[in-house]
Every structure is written in C-alpha cells, then in structure tokens.
Amino acid sequence: DETRDVDSKIYEWDGNAFAEIQTIPTHSARDWHSFEIDGETYLVVANNQSGKLREIDSVIYKWNGESFEVFQSIPTCGAHDWESFQINGKMYLMVANNQNNEENPSVNSVLYQWDGSSFVKMLDLPTQAARDWEYFVMDGERYLTVANDDKDYEENIFSQIYKLRIEEEADDAGDKDTEEGDDAEKEDDDDDGSSCFIFSATQ
C-alpha cells in the first residue's frame, strides 16, 4: 500500500491457537507496546508514516473487557518505538521519534507522565533518527538508553544513556542533583512536588 495505511491485527489465545479478534487502523506501524495502570491494560502503537507524512498521531488503546478502544492520541514524528516504566508508582511513556515531514532526523523524542487520567508531555530529549528506547535499573540507579541512527547509513552516530533521578520534595531539588558539566534538563510535577531529572551519563 503506497499510503502505508495498513491495519494491524490483535489475536487471542483460544486454548489451541491464536485467533484474530480485532483489526485496528495503523499507519506504517513500527511497534506495539503493552502496559498496565491500576490493573487496566493498555496498548500503544508507534505510527511511523501515512503517505509522505511522518508528523502523525500515535495512539494509546485501552481494553474495555471485549476489545481495545481508543484512549488517547499523541502527536509523533515518524515514531519507531515506545517504552514504558514505573518509578515510585508513577507510569511513564517514552517515544522514539525518527524524523519529521522534511525527513530531518534531528527531532526530539518525548517523555510522557501519567497524571491520573491521561499522559501529559514531561520532557523533550534531542535524538537523531531514534529507533529504540530501553529502560533498565542497575545497582539501584535508573537509566534510559536510546538507539540513534543515521538514516542514510553513511556515518557512525553516537547513542546516549540517560540517568534518571526523582526527587520527592521540590524544595530539596536543585544543584545538589546535577553536577557542573552535566547536560541536564528538569521538569517539575505540580501535582505532588516531585521532579524528574534526566541527564546524559555517557555516549
């Protein structure tokens, strides 16, 4: 299909095999990711391209007991991947944006936070034709790593590892959590006073 508007399908195990139960319209879908919030199941799709347009919505779906229904649409730029993770009981979603309508690969990937009813944008991170995000914990520290790419496959591209720090009290958040020379960004959560710090740990 030249438009790249090809449906995705959901299958359910019937005891003997997987049987198709639902068809969902998608646009050059690159990734599906499942996660749970408060016992509810969600699916999010990375819609990459519709025709020549890459700045299109990706969609979060919620299971209603019989099928997945549209829950929230999120603007993305050539989305390639979604990653979810929880910190201190809060759910986060990270999207890997690959390129914009002008095929410029220098676009921000975006971190979203669950606010109790929907996902809200929390932080932009500069990426280069991002293909994948992965969250992991090592020695009690939390990290996000991105796989950057050169869309023309002509040169080596640095990927980054980011270290995440969460401060429960906004009054205590400040210079003590960032070191001179760190490429740090900060967003405050007004709901409970917590802050999310993300800074580059290594290349």
Task: Offer a quick outline of the entry.
The chain has 203 residues and is mostly beta strands.
The total of beta strands comes to 15
Helix count, DSSP H or I runs of 4 or more residues: 0
For the terminal residues, how far apart are their CA atoms?
38 Å
Mean pLDDT comes to: 85
Helix content: under 10%
* Spatial shape: globular
Main sheet makeup: 5 strands, antiparallel
Strand sequence of the main sheet, in spatial order?
11-12-13-15-14
- Taking Cα atoms only, what radius of gyration do you get, to the nearest Å? 18 Å
What are the segments in which pLDDT stays under 50 over at least 5 consecutive residues?
169-195
What fraction strand? over 45%
Pattern of helices and strands: EEEEEEEEEEEEEEE
**Class per helix and strand makeup:** mainly beta
Structural commentary:
- This protein is mainly β.
- The protein is 0% helix and 59% strand.
- It contains no helices and 15 strands.
- It has a 5-stranded antiparallel sheet, with no helix packed on it. A 4-stranded antiparallel sheet has the order 3-4-5-6, with no helix packed on it.
- A hairpin with a 4-residue loop joins strand 9 and strand 10.
- It is globular.
- Mean pLDDT is 85; it is low at 169-195.
List the helices and strands and how they pair.
Layout: E1 8-13, E2 18-24, E3 29-37, E4 40-47, E5 55-63, E6 68-77, E7 79-87, E8 90-97, E9 106-114, E10 119-128, E11 132-138, E12 141-147, E13 160-167, E14 184-188, E15 195-202
Antiparallel strand pairs: 1-2, 3-4, 4-5, 5-6, 7-8, 8-9, 9-10, 11-12, 12-13, 13-15, 14-15
